[in-house]
Specification:
Blueprint (H helix, E strand, L loop, with lengths): L3 E8 L5 E8 L3 E5 L6 H9 L6 E6 L2 E5 L4 E2 L7 E4 L11 H11 L6 H11 L14 H14 L4 E5 L7 H18 L3 E5 L2 H7 L2 E6 L2 E6 L1 H11 L7
Parallel strand pairs: 3-9, 3-10, 7-8, 8-9
Antiparallel strand pairs: 1-2, 1-4, 4-5, 5-6, 10-11
């Protein structure tokens, strides 16, 4: 059964035309492709940050968007967690304050066991009293992931959260991500243009190019297709 059904079309003023349809039925699905292929636009549409001109988005049988029926749920009503590339933590809140924000937005006050479990799995207990300015890039991404998990999302969206990290740190943060996704069994849609991240983490891959789906399948299938279809630097 499909967790997420996505079918949207949108034409930007600059001429870029996005026309994408795919289903998510695996725990970890990667949106893969070169920069400018429409990956982040898809995530923003699922999250409700961008409304396409035409389309439908259904999450676990619940309609998030149907432009024909004029249904478009607000982002806070979609039960979707979002981890951005630059983490977007609140600079005036401590790590604990950022984490608690995820709980409070979803009326999760008092569920200390969930809070403790997230802190333990992501190993961020020693960071709770720090502010984001005092964290490394990897620590900020772990906190951002924790905040998203504490909102109890039905779907986790991640927009190249490892892109700004060096290779050793990227590997460590990806380990935490894999651990968290497995622990809470949350379907995850992960945007990347890094082949290594796809091979390691993804169960299913949707390949985008120039605003269209040009392939879908297992990592081996799609990466082989990408090598033949895309420019030499597209999978770097």
């Amino acid at each position: 059964m499909s967790v997420l059904s996505f079918q949207c079309e949108h034409r930007y003023c600059g001429g870029f035309h996005l026309d994408v349809a795919f289903d998510v039925s695996h725990r970890f699905t990667a949106l893969f492709g070169p920069s400018g292929s429409g990956k982040t636009s898809v995530l923003n549409m699922v999250a409700g940050f961008l409304r396409p001109q035409q389309g439908t988005i259904v999450l676990k049988g619940r309609t998030l968007l149907n432009t024909v029926q004029r249904v478009s749920l607000l982002p806070e009503k979609r039960s979707v967690g979002f981890v951005f590339q630059d983490s977007l933590l609140f600079p005036h809140r401590t790590v604990e304050g950022n984490l608690r924000y995820g709980q409070h937005r979803h009326n999760r006050r008092g569920h200390s066991s969930d809070f403790s479990r997230v802190v333990d799995v992501l190993e961020i207990g020693p960071l709770l009293r720090r502010f984001p300015r005092n964290l490394s890039g990897g620590e900020r991404q772990r906190v951002a992931l924790g905040r998203a998990l504490l909102s109890e999302p039905e779907l986790l969206l991640m927009d190249e959260p490892l892109a700004s990290l060096d290779a050793p740190l990227r590997d460590r943060v990806l380990t935490y991500l894999e651990r968290a996704v497995a622990e809470w069994n949350i379907p995850t849609l992960f945007v990347t243009h890094a082949e290594g991240e796809v091979r390691r983490a993804a169960q299913w891959v949707v390949l985008l190019q120039a605003g269209h789906v040009v392939g879908a399948g297992t990592p081996d299938q799609v990466l082989g297709l990408a090598a033949s279809r895309l420019a030499p630097d597209a999978t770097r």
